[in-house]
Amino acid sequence: MFAKPFATVLLSVACLPVYAQCEATVEANDAMQFNVKEITVDKTCKEFTVTLKHVGKLPKTAMGHNWILTTEADFQPTATAGMAAGAANDYMQPNDARIIAHTKMLGGGESDTVTVDVSKLAAGQNYTFFCSFPGHWAIMKGTLKVSS
Ligand code: ZN
Questions:
Q1: Residue 102 belongs to what H/E stretch?
Q2: The predicted structure's pLDDT at residue 49
Q3: How far is the CA of 103 from the centre of ligand 1 (A)?
Q4: How many A from CA of 120 to the centre of ligand 1?
Q5: What single-letter DSSP state applies at residue 97?
């Protein structure tokens, strides 16, 4: 019953002009890795949505992953403050103004989505995304930029 309308929707989507991709999916695994090292945000996007998927099996107490966005300069002090804030705060200092956007801390099989207000990002500035779980942020990090 639904086959025909569904096909029509697919066809009309395919015929639309190409718009900027205003979203990204990042996977994190039990080997303490993100599958994405660099994200470029098109400046025409008003909002940019990031979905973090923990594709591993380990619980968040052993292999928790989150996705936090700061400027490149704020990355290390924010990560250090997060470690001090501890597990009860998902390894994020509460109300940390340096955090531009973040997902919650995830365990295996979970996912979370966060929306970044692109007007708060500057072209030419490098941003760093990372996981704040202790010991992870040295490896689990990448760069986010706005296209110019
Ligand atoms: Zn992690």
A1: strand 101-102
A2: 98
A3: 12
A4: 25
A5: T
**87-117 CB burial, b ≥16 within 10 A, e <16:** eeebbbbeebeebbbbbebbbbebebebebe
CA dihedral (122, 127, 132, 134) positive or negative = negative
pLDDT value, residue 58: 98
Q: How far does residue 38's CA lie from ligand 1's centre (Å)?
A: 17
Token digits of residue 32 = 């303490």
CA atoms within 13 A on the CB side of 133: 23
Q: What is the dihedral of CA 34, 37, 42, 48, to 10 degrees?
A: 20
User: With a cut of 50, which residues of the chain have pLDDT below it?
Assistant: 1, 7-9, 11-12
How many Cα atoms within 13 Å fall on the side-chain side of residue 118?
A: 19
Q: List the structure tokens of 56.
A: 């591993």
pTM, two decimals, is 0.86
Amino acid of residue 115: T
Compute, in angstroms, the gap from residue 33 CA to the centroid of ligand 1.
8
For residue 29, what are the contacts with CB-CB under 8 A and spacing of at least 6? 35, 54, 55, 56
